[in-house]
Amino acid sequence: MEKPKIIIDTERMKYPFTGLYYYCKDLALHMDQYYQDQFDLYFYSHKKIEFPSHLKRIFRKQIDKLFFYIPSQYQLWHITWQDTKYVPVNNTKIVYTIHDLNFLYTDKPDYKKKKLLEKVQKKFDRADAVTAISAFVKADIEKNIKTKGKEIRVIHNGVDFKEFPEFDSPKYRPKVPFLFTLGTVLFKKNFHVLPQLLIDNDYELLIAGIQNNEEYLNFLNAEIKKLGVENRVKLLGPITEEEKYWYNKNCLAFVFPSLSEGFGLPPIEAMKLGKPVFLSTLTSLPEVGGNLAYYFDNFEGDSMRKVLNEGLIDYQIHNRKPKITAWANQYSWEKAVDQYAQVYKEVLGLSNNKITELTPKISAIIPTFNEEINIENAIKSVLFCDEIIILDSYSTDKTVEFATKYPVKIHYRKFDDFSSQKNYGITLAKNDWILYLDADEVITNKVRNEIIHTLNSNPKEKAFQFKMNYVFLGKIMQFGGFQSKKVIRLFHKNFAHYKGIVHEALVVEGKIKQMQNPILHQNLQNLDSFIDTQNQYAHLKATKIKTRNRIVLNIKKYVKTFYRFIKHYIIRFGFLDGKQGFIFAKIQAKGVSMVYDILLKAK
Known about the structure:
Blueprint: E1 5-9, H1 19-35, E2 40-45, E3 57-59, E4 76-79, E5 93-98, H2 110-126, E6 129-132, H3 135-144, E7 152-154, E8 178-182, E9 204-208, H4 214-226, E10 233-237, H5 241-250, E11 253-256, H6 265-272, E12 277-280, H7 285-289, E13 294-296, H8 301-317, H9 321-328, H10 333-348, E14 362-368, H11 375-381, E15 387-392, H12 399-403, E16 409-412, H13 418-428, E17 433-436, E18 441-442, H14 445-456, E19 463-472, E20 475-476, E21 486-492, E22 496-499, E23 505-508, E24 512-514, E25 519-521, H15 527-547, H16 554-571, H17 578-602
Parallel strand pairs: 1-2, 1-4, 2-3, 4-5, 5-6, 6-7, 8-9, 8-11, 9-10, 11-12, 12-13, 14-15, 14-17, 15-16, 19-24, 19-25
Antiparallel strand pairs: 17-21, 18-25, 19-20, 19-21, 22-23
Helix pairs in contact: 1-10, 6-9, 15-17, 16-17
């Protein structure tokens, strides 16, 4: 059966560092990760938007603002924010997501509010399904929009908060305990009440976010000056993902007195790290923070300081951190896209059963060092996994930059040997099943489906072995030793560990099953990279030989080098792979020669 073609509007990504930017990006990435097997997904955006390269895009045209037509092969259009101008004029099915009706609570003239509300009403009437990002927004819609009995689904936003534990270079480093907040610097964020929290203490206050409203910025600075705390308030402007992690991790508390929030992403990001958060009692924030947040009843200085001081004491005395983290973890993108997918299917009249739903969760681990050529293909192939961990040995190229385009967790560790590196990776995984993948390997769709089917059958085996399809200089190698090459890539972490310095082996306590479909090993298309890898192996092998006190002789170098070539090219029929077979055997022999060159040089 042909998959339905669905377009998701990500046009608002043209405004980076905003809530809608991250909402659109995360919705796109996670919908593709979990539902690419059921929907043919397309994403509507600007050409100049930095967008994940593996996703299919439809570019916005100037005429779209006047006449927006979607070809009939696309069955559904997802409007991802309430004020969009892009609504199909034909009979395409529509899912309409409303984030807020905040314009009703601004100082706009009444006639403008009325006009904006009429536009929302028109899209609401046109939609086949409507979703709201919080129960508060749903209630606000029902209060101000004629719903005519149409159901409004509440789908809370997911929170994909990236962690960078090794990062320690923020643009500004406070010297004393500090309060942190994040958001576009506007009147509705109410940041100007926060400097009052600095009275009678030595704290600093850090405010991060876009500063594009000069009137409010002047007002905020005036309030700071009036209280005499200019030296303890820092307006950081936009910050990177790494800096956001650092400030959330190291702050004394996250403070967010916003007057108007449809959901409230920044407090949940802080709560993911178990931080105490202090919120206003307005709009959606009590719903989002629940009883694990602390609330300002009003914005008088004495009252706010009392709430802050009593909250910090309560946080410490009762060890609130674990419960705060658990609360925040309920807001996952996996859960959110499952709910959106259910809405899509209902609108399209499809079954809600997943075709390839994975019950046991998998942690995919990819060790990296300077793998910018390969890393994106490796990550894309394991997006079906519940968790993707990049274990990087401090790459000096763009490996990490490319990896962070995807929903991954980045960890750093200096490389010592392969077994130690991989065993450390296992300790980072939150799930029992581990899928270890080298950065130059790819899980094909057939392998993915076989993994899902196998794990869903509750197997007795503790590990699974795969054949490899090696691509060398553009050719899948059939001989030279490749025909018998098998590796264990999937295993239960409680029954396996690695040992060995050079060619690490997985020791498994239990049965091992051979899988039918091969993993694709594709980095060997890059000859220089392959030679560099051989050089790395040579240094490790030389270390291993020295520890065994083996005698190093020139004659041994030539004998073993010659034998390695004969082994791959003649004994294992490498000559049947043509030119590639010859070059591969030659490089393998060169690898042996490198080992003895290193030993002879050290002697």
